[in-house]
């Protein structure tokens, strides 16, 4: 199974959990709580990933990275953003340096 396929399958599973009982599905609980709760949980997992990355335990980093990816997919689903749309953004950035890509973004006026 390819890495991309794993993410696509996980995103589809998360989408299917939207219609399940929150009593039986943690994913449904998160989705029912709304985007703000999903964003908070994603942020918590991202911080845990950073902490694991600063340590020397590769297994811990892998586990936290997996948790972070899962919670990112839940957050995207909570806002009805398709993973394929995120892939399209990434594909559009391929072949350009990170410095060029960042410079090409619209600047905020606030």
Q: Could you name the key traits of this structure?
A:
single chain, 110 residues, mainly alpha, Helix Hairpins, 0% strand
Structure class: mainly alpha
Return the CATH architecture: Orthogonal Bundle
Domains (count): 1
C-alpha termini separation: 44 Å
Radius of gyration: 16 Å
CATH fold-level label:
Helix Hairpins
Poorly predicted ranges? none
Characterize the main sheet: none
Q: Provide the β-strand percentage band.
A: under 5%
Q: What is the CATH superfamily?
A: MazG-like
Account of the 3D structure:
By secondary structure, this protein is mainly alpha-helical. The protein has a single domain, classed as MazG-like (Helix Hairpins). Helices cover 75% and strands 0% of the residues. The protein has six helices and no strands. It is globular. The chain starts with a helix and ends in a 6-residue tail after the last helix. The mean pLDDT is 93. Pathway: Amino-acid biosynthesis; L-histidine biosynthesis; L-histidine from 5-phospho-alpha-D-ribose 1-diphosphate: step 2/9. Keywords: Amino-acid biosynthesis, ATP-binding, Cytoplasm, Histidine biosynthesis, Hydrolase, Nucleotide-binding. GO terms for molecular function: ATP binding; phosphoribosyl-ATP diphosphatase activity. InterPro entries: HisE, PRib-ATP_PPHydrolase-like.
Structure summary:
The chain is built from 6 helices and no strands.
Layout: helices, strands, pairs:
Blueprint: H1 3-17, H2 26-33, H3 35-54, H4 58-78, H5 83-93, H6 98-104
Pfam families: PRA-PH
GO biological process, one term: L-histidine biosynthetic process
Catalytic activity: 1-(5-phospho-beta-D-ribosyl)-ATP + H2O = 1-(5-phospho-beta-D-ribosyl)-5'-AMP + diphosphate + H(+)
């Amino acid at each position: 199974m390819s890495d991309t396929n794993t993410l696509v399958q996980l995103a589809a599973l998360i989408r299917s959990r939207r219609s399940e009982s929150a009593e039986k599905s943690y994913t449904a609980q998160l989705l029912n709580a709304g985007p703000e709760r999903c964003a908070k949980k994603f942020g918590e997992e991202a911080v845990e990933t950073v902490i694991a990355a600063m340590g020397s335990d590769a297994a811990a980093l892998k586990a936290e990275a997996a948790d972070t990816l899962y919670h990112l997919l839940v957050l995207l689903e909570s806002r009805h953003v398709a993973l394929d749309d995120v892939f399209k953004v990434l594909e559009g950035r391929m072949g350009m340096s990170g410095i060029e890509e960042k410079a090409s973004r619209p600047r905020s006026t606030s």
